[in-house]
Automatic annotation (TrEMBL):
It comes from Thermogemmatispora argillosa. It holds the Pfam family MGH1-like_GH. This is Mannosylglycerate hydrolase MGH1-like glycoside hydrolase domain-containing protein. It comes from the Bacteria. Residues 409-592 form the Mannosylglycerate hydrolase MGH1-like glycoside hydrolase domain. One of its GO terms (biological process) is carbohydrate metabolic process. Coiled coil: none annotated.
């Protein structure tokens, strides 16, 4: 069921047509108080690129000639209750209650087609007497003339015949935008008003309050930025006869290279919007029928944050485009690109809702990459992570632990058809690192810090840029990740050796005999053993340390990523024992970042703490990552400099309030791996752990803040291979839990398990016959 809740009135709609090189069609972002629109090519700037324009639909209200609501401040002064009851990648809704006039406004924005934004607007009153409402339908536009290659000098705006449409265009050559309204109910025809042309929404409000506002000239521009700001407004007046009557309007904003094209798109959208909306509804229903939601006594911000995270993941997965023939992970929605680390973590978080899609995304990245190291690239095949000596780079095995993520998906599903398709490219990826990134003594190195994912980290010494060569540094986390990855490959090869000697029809896996698969497994195990030994040799002076081969000295720096040997299973127990205090108080990352700021580092720290036998500490760390992130994602106030709530961000900014550390979402809006809280909650709090297909371990460990006796925490449906799980954890007391697990398969009666245990106590569940 598509979630309905008291969501924050901020967020994004997905534009599946947007890509960075081949079709920078723009992102769709909400705008206060009741708006939505394009930012082209994306929000703000990206590296050295300036934006071209933003174009938003927005809605203002005039009620009974005695109340005017245009700006966000107007709505705040009248104590209007504003939220979003529907917050998916396909449909973004506003609810606005105007208490002084008993009026409810409901607006649902959706993308009709690439170049037409639609909105269904509904007005209902509970007042006994007649209510007269004027809707001020605005097109707010900001144009940056400095990014144009056309013959232009300004903007013009005017109404079109009929009074319900208006056009805003670039003079004398450039795009044309048409916005307007059409009635959808059988009530008295709405009355169009005279179009109002101002610079800003604030000027519109002043004009409607009687101030003398001069319309902008064609060439008028902001004196500081040179940007040309315009607001073109169409008033539309209608009456609500009494309580329960609903009036409905269709609002559309169309863009095109000419008036002819924009007008044609507007008319086609007016005729076809219902078909488009039904398709968006079907997509949402199909996803949320299988995607997990939180219920019971979870904090409300967690319940809603869990939704924001999954909707961000849906947006980050891009449709086939350019050289890519399958779905792919764009890393973030603003300027999508292929990066293995982000793709792996995004697929891991997405897999609890859409495991088949997560598998396909990973296959696209592994099997359609032009080189074995999976270079970071755009959809057109251009590379965007090249070291300062010209080496084409992709992210390393330690950043996001891509093989670990793949293995978790496989352990849940047991999908050997998928594994056979994945195996050759995964093996080639690790072999590439062994062949191209070993120094003269056999230690793994990075070409540059970009390749490590830890851009310009202080671990690697002085650097001009992330492309500076650092091949003299032997990083301990890289050695540990090779031990982990090789052990996974050995396990996969062993499993594939159990299959028939010949590959299945249509398989791209190598056609190996059982003996050859066994030899493959043995070779990978030798690599795993070699790098486990190498990792343990880097234990110096009570810490896992990087080594500078050029200066022949061990690093004095302590970094959160130095806990990777524990996460990767490459540390000895004696070493783990000596790191207990560091696990309880993890060090910073890269010379200043708090340990949970960056999702891949948080995965390392939390996973290492859990692997070291400190599940309660891991749960508290995971809880802080989740609680702080979701609290800010669900905020109801918006400051432009702080970024938009309602969408997952790139990283967390550490803020101290006295002795209290808080992790505040920051960085690029619409960044997939920020949704790693989905994985942390299901794995480290509810305790669902993959063993092998048909089998899992449940080891609940709720944080202390949630252990209120009698509280019930539910999550489901959770996709676990071909099985759907529903999990309920009830707090018995400070030391004990009661857990109920239901597993369902198609055409089979559900199976149930229920037991009482101590926090952190594990129970092995056999979901299917062994």
């Amino acid at each position: 069921m598509v979630p309905r809740d008291d969501f924050t009135p901020y967020g994004y709609l997905d534009n599946p047509f947007h890509s960075w090189k081949l079709n920078p069609s723009g992102v769709l972002r909400s705008r206060p108080p009741l708006g939505m629109g394009w930012h082209v090519p994306n929000l703000g700037s990206y590296v050295r690129n300036q934006f071209q324009y933003s174009a938003h639909l927005n809605i203002g209200l005039g009620i009974d000639d005695d109340l005017l609501l245009i700006t966000p401040q107007d709505f705040q002064r009248q104590s209007c209750a504003l939220n979003s009851p529907l917050h998916t990648k396909n449909r973004f809704a506003y609810n606005c209650i105007v208490p002084s006039h008993n009026l409810l406004l409901h607006a649902v924005y959706f993308l009709v087609e690439e170049h037409v934004l639609g909105c269904l607007l509904s007005l209902v009153t509970t007042r006994e007497s007649k209510l007269r409402v004027t809707c001020y339908i605005q097109h707010e536009h900001i144009h940056n003339p400095f990014t144009s290659r056309l013959w232009e000098h300004g903007l013009y705006g005017r109404a079109l015949p009929g009074g319900n449409l208006a056009m805003l265009g670039i003079a004398s050559e450039g795009d044309v935008f048409i916005h307007g309204w059409a009635a959808l109910d059988e009530g008295p025809a709405p009355q169009p008003g005279e179009a109002i042309y101002t610079v800003s929404q604030a000027e519109l409000a002043a004009s409607l309050r009687g101030a003398a506002v001069v319309p902008p000239t064609v060439t008028q521009a902001d004196p500081e930025t040179g940007w040309q700001v315009r607001t073109l407004t169409l008033p539309c007046t209608l009456e609500l006869a009494g309580p329960g009557e609903e009036r409905r309007l269709l609002l559309l904003l169309a863009r095109g290279v000419s008036l002819d094209e924009s007008y044609r798109r507007w008319r086609e959208a007016q005729e076809g919007f219902q078909t488009a909306l039904r398709e968006r509804e079907r997509e949402d229903e199909a996803f949320w029928t299988r995607a997990p939601q939180l219920s019971g006594d979870w904090p409300a911000t967690w319940r809603r944050g869990f939704i924001y995270d999954q909707e961000t993941l849906r947006m980050v997965v891009r449709p086939p485009c350019g050289l890519l023939k399958g779905p792919w992970d764009g890393m973030q929605i603003q300027a999508p690109r292929l990066v293995l680390a982000e793709a792996a973590l995004d697929a891991l978080a997405l897999s609890y809702a859409a495991p088949a899609l997560a598998e396909e995304v990973l296959l696209t990245h592994f099997t359609q990459a032009p080189h074995a190291n999976l270079p970071c690239m755009r959809e057109d095949g251009s590379y965007n992570m090249v070291a300062d000596d010209g080496q084409i780079c992709g992210t390393a095995p330690e950043w996001g632990y891509p093989l670990y993520c793949c293995d978790l998906l496989f352990r849940r599903s047991g999908n050997r058809t998928w594994l056979r398709r994945l195996y050759p490219a995964a093996a080639a990826y690790l072999r590439w690192w062994l062949e191209h990134r070993r120094d003269a003594e056999g230690w793994l190195v990075y070409a540059c810090s970009w390749e490590s994912g830890q851009d310009v980290s202080s671990r690697f010494g002085p650097q001009q840029t992330g492309g500076t060569l650092i091949q003299h540094v032997r990083p301990v986390d890289l050695q540990a990740s090779m031990a982990q990855g090789a052990a996974i490959m050995a396990r996969w090869a062993t499993l594939l050796a159990q299959e028939e000697d010949e590959a299945q029809p249509g398989s791209v896996a190598p056609s190996l005999s059982r003996a050859e698969w066994q030899a493959e497994a043995a070779w990978w195990q030798r690599i795993a053993d070699e790098f486990t030994v190498k990792t343990r040799r880097m234990w110096q002076y009570g810490w896992f340390r990087d080594y500078d081969a050029r200066n022949q000295q061990w690093s004095s720096e302590r970094d959160a990523m130095h806990l990777a040997p524990i996460f990767c299973g490459a540390a000895g127990w004696g070493q783990i024992e000596q790191l207990q205090e560091a696990l309880r108080q993890p060090p910073s990352h890269s010379g200043g970042w708090a340990p949970l700021c960056w999702p891949p580092v948080a995965l390392t720290v939390i996973g290492a703490t859990d692997a070291a036998g400190l599940p309660e500490v891991a749960a508290e760390l995971a809880s802080q990552f989740i609680a702080d992130g979701y609290r800010h994602l669900d905020q109801r106030s918006f400051r432009p400099e702080a970024g938009l709530p309602g969408v997952t961000r790139e990283y967390r900014q550490a803020r101290w309030s006295g002795a209290t550390l808080e992790y505040v979402p920051a960085g690029i809006e619409g960044y997939g791996w920020g949704a790693l809280g989905v994985h942390f909650l299901l794995r480290y709090l509810l305790g669902l752990r993959e063993e092998e297909a048909g089998q899992l371990t449940v080891r609940p460990m709720l944080p202390q803040s949630l252990r209120r006796p009698g509280s019930r925490y539910q999550a489901g449906p959770i996709q676990w291979g071909g099985i759907t799980l529903q999990a309920t954890c009830t707090v018995q007391d400070a030391d004990h839990y009661r857990f109920h697990l239901r597993a369902s398969e198609p055409d089979q009666p559900p199976a149930d398990w229920e037991w009482v245990g101590r926090w952190g106590e594990a129970r092995l569940i056999q979901l299917t016959p062994s």
